[in-house]
Design a protein that fits this description.
Length: 290
């Protein structure tokens, strides 16, 4: 007797395991995400840096004055379109550089400028080339007056022929510069080589710390003058003093360079104050409207 066979059952083909948006919703949402939403993605480095820079510039420009609170994390999330995790990471970076301080139940408070790590290259960049901090530039000039004359004297006796040639090449670049950007770049190279030519390791390390601030100060000086004739002459005098191994001449040449820098920075500060006053007097300026 044959057995009655029922309809053949074809086993269902298993569906491939694909991570879909529906799969995400089955997982417990993170604390800073709404129920049913996908977990936040980690911000790309570029986006993260832009958020940090935007907040830092807002602090440096005075939008958020010292001892005031930054907007709440939720408000910053809405402004930048990112998760709280991303905002918290950005605030940690700003706190590590001395710009802000997180306080429980208070929020994130902007610190006084005296607490900022003003030699940090990132902070110098965030402050912007057009943001003139007169006190910082004066401090850099004072540091240069304490270091460069002694370094020049040492370089007059210790610099190698190659180092003097490198100084001369930097000076030639300064003389050939057609704009303040090219002049500043060559000027920074000149002073960096000078410190190395002193063969004093402490001087070289100190200049490594203030390199970004020096670049800012030299740039401010270069923008403040119509031409660079005086600076070019003074820098050439220093090169010649080193060639002649003239320690006294080297010190005098550096003093002349620093006196020019002081003159130019004073002019730049006065110009900035005048422009700021003019902006306040404009009928449609924010100050007038307020």
């Amino acid at each position: 007797m044959g057995l009655a066979l029922g309809p053949t059952r074809v086993p269902a083909t298993p569906k491939p395991s694909v991570m879909t948006s529906e799969t995400y919703t089955l997982k417990a949402p993170p604390k800073d995400a709404a129920v049913g939403s996908a977990p936040p993605r980690r911000a790309k480095p570029r986006v993260q840096k832009e958020i940090i820079a935007t907040l830092a510039r807002s602090i440096a420009s005075g939008r958020f004055p010292p001892n005031t609170n930054l907007p709440r994390e939720n408000d910053l999330c809405a402004e930048f379109g990112v998760s709280r995790t991303v905002i918290r990471e950005a605030l940690k970076v700003l706190e590590s550089k001395g710009l802000v301080r997180g306080r429980p139940r208070v929020g994130t408070v902007v610190r006084d400028k005296e607490d900022w790590n003003l030699l940090d290259p990132d902070i110098i960049e965030w402050m912007g080339s057009d943001f003139l901090d007169e006190a910082l530039l004066k401090s850099v000039l004072e540091a240069r007056r304490a270091i460069e004359p002694a370094a020049a004297e040492l370089a007059a006796t210790r610099a190698s022929a190659q180092e003097i040639a490198d100084l001369d090449h930097a000076w030639q670049r300064m003389a050939a510069a057609e704009d303040y950007t090219a002049f500043t770049e060559a000027d920074v190279v000149f002073h960096t080589v000078l410190l190395k030519a002193s063969h004093n390791r402490v001087f070289a390390q100190l200049y490594g710390l203030i390199h970004a601030a020096l670049h800012r100060a030299l740039g401010a000086s270069a923008r403040a003058v119509a031409d660079y004739k005086d600076a070019i002459v003074a820098h050439h005098s220093l090169v010649e003093a080193l060639r002649l191994r003239d320690t006294n001449g080297a010190r005098k040449a550096v003093d002349a360079i620093l006196n020019l820098a002081e003159r130019d920075l004073a002019h730049a500060a006065a110009t900035e104050r005048a422009e700021a006053a003019a902006r306040l007097e404009q009928p449609n300026s924010p100050a007038q409207q307020g």
